[in-house]
Amino acid sequence: MKVAVLAPVAWRTPPRHYGPWEQMSSNIAEGLHAEGIDVTLFATSDSITDGKLEAVIARGYEEDRSQDAKVVECLHISHLMERANEFDIIHNNYDFLPLTYSGLVKTPLITTIHGFSSEKILAVYKKYNRQSGYVSISNADRSDELDYLATVYNGIKVSDFTYNETPGDYLLYFGRIHPDKGTAEAIEIAVKSKKRLLIAGIIQDQAYFDEKINPLLNDEIIFIGDAGPEKRNRLLGHAQALLHPINFDEPFGLSVAEAMLCGTPVIAFNRGSMPELIADGKTGFLVKTVDEAVDALADIGKINRLNCHQWSLGNFSQEKMVSEYIKLYDSILVKI
Question: Beta partners for 52?
Answer without folding.
Answer: 40
